[in-house]
């Protein structure tokens, strides 16, 4: 018994290596349909028993068959067990011992006598249940096949097949719960049925149709041991959903249920437009919730679908996310268990690429390779393209349908191995990327406080117009620019202007620069520098106590005075705007005559001017540097003061907090 | 690496709780509640005063090494909230959330 049970287990797992001939495949699938498989693929035991009895084998051998095929071990007939059982029946009928080895032999089809439903099946076109219809139609077709000479396909057969198939196709409604969603849901399927019918052009076409459904189609048969579907070109299990899926499969041209076809895309687009007329806009979460709840899927499943499809986690659906969600719902309604993470063909990158390449070829291979090779850069492109970021962050999601899902997932994985594996590393990459991007502004208030504490950086000093010629045009320009220039922060005193000093002033210049005396000949210059300081202090943010200002002012006086002295005409030019801003016309007039005075003077020492200018430029640079140093020192001092004050504040606050409960109690 | 992760609702019942399987798992649950009590105490004592205080306290969570942990948790929590099919107050059943939490739990063996 142990041997047999282990053999049964082996049979269950080894069923994958049974090769069924095409006729056998069709026949068996018809019988399978006859036995009314339910959603999980288990066959109705009464029907199976009936079938077994119809084989007219002795009860003993029937028991043996049941044991060997593994159904006894499992407790029910799954598809694999069923097929093995049929093979064993055939073996038994042809006189071979009921053993696993005989299964591999080339056997004729098992014969069943007295199946009541045979005649029913043939004319089962308008049945009550859609399931029976599809099953019966296919079964009828197969019965018809088996009763006719095996392998002879006459045109008449084909036409009847088409008729039989077409009828149930049309009769089959979409899953009825979908009805509130309006009739269009049927359209993808009815569309599907037409190419399906078109395929029935010849024997070969039919056979290829039968054997076409890929292992993925069989994903619904998620009981252990059903690997026959993968290893062999399994005949379509004619259950309710499988026929629909077959149509979808033929639609999708590459046997991938997770791929969105053109018609589906159109349909989704229309649905999107009913919810949100702008295709680029988002559907809000609540709106989407109401819409998808109409599909009557249970809420946890809808929640899971949402998690899968909202790739950028924004609580709303873009058009692509909507398509993904819709497609997942459609698949789920068809009986596909929900995947743990988005299949590669459903990912937003893929969808976008599909849009770009509308004429996708039928074969799956190049597309998958495309995905692999370019998945990463494409997703990176997407992140540039779309405003919401695309990432698949679904890792390790539970299956709500338990074992079913797990096994179907394994099947999917086996069938989509290449494209799946690049997923996790990309996911992680994008995960980290998207994690940082939308959450980037999660700074605590401390950071914000720090930011506010940072002074707005002082604007860089304007490059002074270092021209050495006192052209009145330049002056005018400067004057014009003066007012806006000042407002935008002519901070530093215009030390740079290498003016055209007169000889006397040049002689003054080195003296004055070396000795920082505040000996300013003209009072108005002093005034001007004073005003300049004011401007400076006003413009500088966070100018604290007066003493520093004065300190600055003295220093500045020194620096500016020299410049004033040296750079008469041009230092006056920058001064002029200052004067304009703060004071006015009186100084203007005062400023004007002094330039007039040096003019005649300048005519004389023309030769010395170049060297003088160089020196003045150098002096000006030095002055600049000194003022820079002074200002940076000041800045650091202020920062320190700020920190100290902050700390004081914090300590005070803690003290206050400590005292408060005391006060309250 | 956490030993126990819990998300407690406003009404003090756990929306999500998971701990490393040990005998004194209940102790972890108690600890969770007591730590929340400490936070509440701090908050209530500050009262109307400055957000600084509160921030300083919660600052323990952010700047510490486990900063990543809290942030990750919080991110996944907001993802769960974003899901329109999630009703606030429901126990959290999101697989993504579970995944994140598993990643953060102490991995023993």
UniProtKB/TrEMBL annotation, chain A:
CDD domains given in the database record: EH
Instruction: Report biased composition (Basic and acidic residues) as residue ranges.
Output: 529-543
Superkingdom to which the source organism belongs: Eukaryota
Has UniProt tagged this entry with the keyword Calcium? yes
* Residue span(s) of domain EF-hand: 297-332
Residues covered by region (Disordered): 166-200, 216-252, 374-602
Record's compositionally biased regions (Polar residues): 407-418, 555-565
What keywords were assigned to this record? Calcium, Metal-binding
InterPro entries recorded: EF-hand-dom_pair (IPR011992), EF_Hand_1_Ca_BS (IPR018247), EF_hand_dom (IPR002048), EH_dom (IPR000261)
Query: One GO cellular component from the entry?
Result: plasma membrane
Query: What molecular functions are annotated in GO for this chain?
Result: calcium ion binding
Biased composition regions of type Pro residues, renumbered to the chain: 174-187, 492-501
Q: What are its GO biological-process terms?
A: endocytosis; endosomal transport
Domain EH intervals = 24-108, 264-348
Q: What is this protein called?
A: RALBP1 associated Eps domain containing 2
Upper classification of the organism? Eukaryota, Metazoa, Chordata, Craniata, Vertebrata
Automatic annotation (TrEMBL), chain B:
Where does the protein end up?
Answer: Cytoplasm, Perinuclear region
Q: Which GO terms describe its biological process?
A: endoplasmic reticulum to Golgi vesicle-mediated transport
Transmembrane intervals: none
- According to its UniProt record, what is one Pfam family this protein matches? Sedlin_N
* UniProt-listed InterPro entries: Longin-like_dom_sf (IPR011012), Sedlin (IPR006722), TRAPPC2L (IPR044760)
What cellular-component terms does GO give this entry? perinuclear region of cytoplasm
Keywords linked to the UniProt accession = ER-Golgi transport, Transport
Q: Which family does it belong to?
A: Belongs to the TRAPP small subunits family. Sedlin subfamily.
- Can you name this protein? Trafficking protein particle complex subunit 2-like protein
**Organism field:** Oryzias sinensis (Chinese medaka)
